[in-house]
Design goal:
The chain contains 8 helices and no strands. The chain is an all-alpha fold. It is elongated, with a radius of gyration of 16 Å. Helix 2 runs antiparallel to helix 3.
Amino acid sequence: MSMDLFFLFVWFDVSLFPMYPLIAIWGTTRKEYGALKLFLHVLAGSALVLPGIVYLTVASGLHTFDIPALMQLGVLTPGQQKFAFLLFYLGFGILAGVWPFHTWSPVGHVAAPTSVSMIHAGVLMKVGAFGILRVGIFLCPLAGSIGPL
């Protein structure tokens, strides 16, 4: 299951949604605002990742979510890889806290209890970076490389 884009997306979202109640219920300073801002930004990131996954499966012509099958050379053109990589970078990058989409991070960390903030910074933000590396760069190597295509 770890090599399937559908399950990766489902468990990516499942790992993020508990942050809202953890901050909204047990948070401190402006806890409702911080929890809602975090939730909306994470939702926006997921709203970019899902079309990227659907685009990859349709554009490849394979109609599968299998990561090894989608990694085959020649399945996607450089232009298709660029478009998909952009969606993945923005979607996963919002969670990873890339600039300029990091404005939710300070608000969320201040509002969260210490233990929730540690889980968020130590685990969940790394999930965003993992998504960029595992999905974006592995499936779109031409678009993720430095330099012109």
